Amino acid sequence: MSPLETLRLVAGREISTRIRSRAFLWTTGLLVVAIVGGGLVLDLALGSPTAATVALTPQTEPLAQPLQDIARAGEESVEVVRLPDDAAAEASVRDGDVDAALTGDPADFTVVVRSEPGAALYSLLTVLRQQAALGSAVTELGGDPTAVAAELAAATLDVRALDPAPERDGGQIAAGYVAGILLFLALQTTAQLVSQGVVEEKSTRVVELLLSTIRPWQLMAGKVLGIGVIGLIQVLVVISAAAGTALALDLLDASGLDLGSTVVWALAWFVLGFVMYALALAALASLVSRQEDVASVTAPVLLLMIIPYVIGISIAPWDPTNTIVVVLSYVPFAAPLVMPMRIALGTVETWQVLASFALSAALVPLLVWGAGRIYLNAVLRTGARVRLRDALRVR
User: Hey, which residues does 100 pair with through a beta bridge?
Assistant: First the structure.
């Protein structure tokens, strides 16, 4: 058989064996349920913004337009309810039909509430009271209080920031968390499947039968390829569930998240990250012959995965330009976990993503060479743990 045909057979064996396993199906299903459930919880938590309801009487009716203008200027929403008299307004407040009622003289009105007004409503009504007092003063001076109120409501603060902070919204922050957590779980699970598979074949002596017909590099490459396809399918399913949930619930309507770019780059970083971690773990796993010893040899590589993940998930969503986060997003082995978070948060240029991707990809040929040499020299040696120095030695 040609090398490509051999790779196809080895990879196909891994795919057909693992894609039907209960572990894969349950893990994928639980991730999808978690993503969809999280979207529903977020939708319920955010909810639709409810407008504060304020009752006005015929006497305080002139306050309706200034109240709406002030609310609009403060990006608040207020619903005005017109009632026939003060008694009806107070009864509406007592019954919980409105949040507040304005009674008395428009220039010196009284706010009627059931217990206390909310912070936003209190602030809005305070501005209204100040405008009413100003309007009364303007009237006494012979001016037009309506025109003055309109000018005041339209006045905005012009801010020029010398070092403006990057704008982020809830959708971008949520996507940053999802990207970081999903890639960490997918990379950790699939890469460890490679190391466990290597030791399983070595401990049962199956590898000796396989290597009697195919070359070591073909076996290792086929295993990495097959499990990589399984991992990519899982990531695609979960990302599709996340994107579908976000679109179905309109969670991204007010978000600046570039969903397409985030998804494409997440898949690309998963593939590159998986290749790097899988090669390293496959080589190290070939040094031992028992499953109990796998953790001792793979711990350094798993640490390379855990440290950037913890730093990224703790800092990046709130401060994606932090120096540690930025540096880690360019470091091979750390970049596949940190850079997708920065992409989701929209704080990184395309050229920076490409430069980081190129740096990590440049390490792959060295990993292929080193992993191939270690695997070749160690996979057939059973019993005691093979020293890394011996496995790298040219034979």
Answer: 54
What is the Cα–Cα distance from 166 to 256, expressed in whole angstroms? 12
Question: Are residues 222 and 14 in contact, defined by beta-carbon separation less than 8 angstroms?
Answer: yes
170-222 residue pLDDT tens: 777 888 888 888 899 888 888 888 888 888 777 776 766 676 677 777 777 88
DSSP class of 63: G
Phi-psi category of 23—alpha, beta or left, where left has phi over 0 and alpha has psi -120 to 50? alpha
The alpha helices in 141-258, defined as continuous H runs, are 145-154, 170-203, 206-210, 216-248
Answer yes or no: are the C-beta atoms of 228 and 190 closer than 8 Å. Answer: yes
Other beta carbons within 10 Å of 256: 12
Report pLDDT for 335.
Answer: 94
Give the mean model confidence (pLDDT) for residues 55-79: 83
Is residue 265 a contact partner of residue 54, using CB atoms and an 8 Å limit? no
For residue range 81-91, what is the model confidence (pLDDT) as tens digits? 888 888 888 89
The answer to whether 7 and 221 have CB atoms below 8 angstroms apart is yes
Q: Which among 163-177, 209-223, 305-319, 348-362 has the top mean pLDDT?
A: 348-362
Question: Residue 161 burial (CB < 10 Å; 0-12/13-18/19+)?
Answer: exposed
Residue 164 binned pLDDT confidence (cut-offs 50, 70, 90):
low
For residue 201, which of 24, 373, 23, 380 has the smallest C-alpha distance? 380
Neighbours of 201 (CB within 10 A): 19
CB-based contact 355:339 (threshold 8 Å): no
Contacts of 196 (CB under 8 A, 6+ apart): 285, 291, 294
Q: Which two tokens stand for residue 381?
A: 């040696």
